[in-house]
Structures are given as structure tokens and as C-alpha cells.
Amino acid sequence: RRLPPSKEASHTHKSSELDYEIIIVDDASPDGTLEVAKQLQKVYNPSHIVLKPRPGKLGLGTAYVHGLAHATGSFVIIMDADFSHHPSSIPSFIRIQKETNCDIVTGTRYAGQGAGVHGWDLKRKLVSRGANIFADTVLRPGVSDLTGSFRLYRREVLEQLVKEVAGKGFMFQMELMVRAKAGGWKVEECPIRFVDRVYGESKLGGDEIVEYAKGVLSLWLNV
Length: 223
Prior knowledge:
It is a single chain. By secondary structure, the protein is an alpha/beta fold. The protein is 44% helix and 13% strand. It has helices at 8-16, 33-44, 60-69, 90-100, 122-139, 155-164, 171-182, 206-222, and strands at 22-24, 49-51, 75-78, 104-108, 116-118, 151-154, 187-191, 193-195. Helix 5 packs parallel to helix 8 (206-222). The protein is globular and about 50 Å long. The protein starts with 7 loop residues before the first helix and ends with a helix. Residues 4-15 have low confidence and may be disordered.
């Protein structure tokens, strides 16, 4: 997803004085993502902005694995780079992890004070809510937003989970959470405000909805 021409994410980390690295995985995007990332790297140092481009589109799940292979921290945060997942939520994720000593903190758009979705029309809201209700009914994951992808993981837990996950694309994140709960890992939620992307476009059609339903049923059968 396109990295917007802004340094806000890096400013958030810098002002909090965290020891951080931002790993950017770009699959030869034609929209200038890598060029913007290179500009950020010059400003914030390659030790903080780590570029790991790939020669072509290889899928969302493999992008997570690729980024994880180059991570050096004890905890990993996975988020979209288009500001639909706002970096201002990161301190809350870290605080919750420290207070509870949990293995995963997952962002939720549907529970807790301050949670919500902005910029979606009624149809998109109904589809997203319906998708979560369907998954909750079938899988009983114990989280209020299974389709969300803004999460903090203890690194060794994420490394173990990715070895078990078979799903690709948007199902990858769902399967991570389902397997985490099935494996007894401790999960906490953090309310987030999801704002529809300013840069790029979301793809949501009949084919994606069918694939989602098939993926949920596959998880129910196999996990």
C-alpha cells in the first residue's frame, strides 16, 4: 500500500524516544512508494528506515514473512503504511503490552472507547461488520475485530505462528489470530480509529467476499 509523502510515522517514533526500526516491504509498486521510502531513509537514517523491496508482487502473507526475517526487535508491529492505521496508536499498543505482559495486542475498530471507522459508506461498514460477525460465529476467535491487521506481536510468538499459517493474502492475518488463540497465546485488544485511506484504493468486490467466506470455513475445518 502506497507510502504517503509524509514523515509523521517517523516523527511519532522519534518523539517517543523508542529504539525502533521501520521495515518497508515494497513489491515493485508503480506509485512511487520506494522513492518516498528512500527520501525518509535519508532523513531518519538507514538504521531506522529499513528498505526491503522485492522484484514483483508476491503476496501480502509473504511480505509479512519477508519483513519479519529482517526485524531485529523483541516486538513487531504490523500496520498499513497509508495512514488508515495511524501511528499515533502505537504508544497505546506498547502500553497495553507492558501492563498485561501479553503476547499480542490487536487493534479493534469495534470495541472500546475511541474505536471507530471513518470514511466508509454504509455498504462498506455493513460488509466489514458482517464479515466479523460471520467469523466470530464460525471460529469463536475471542477478539472483536478478526479482519483487522494493525497488531503488535512478541517476536518469537509471531515467528512460531508464521510457520503454521497456510493462508495467503488477507486470510494470513486472520489465520495468525485464530492460531494464536488456539495455541493459548495471550491476546489483548486496543481500540483504534480506522480512517479510510487517502492514498491508493481499496479493492472489495464479490470475488473477495466469496474468497473470505471460503477462507473462514477452511480455518474452521483445519485449525
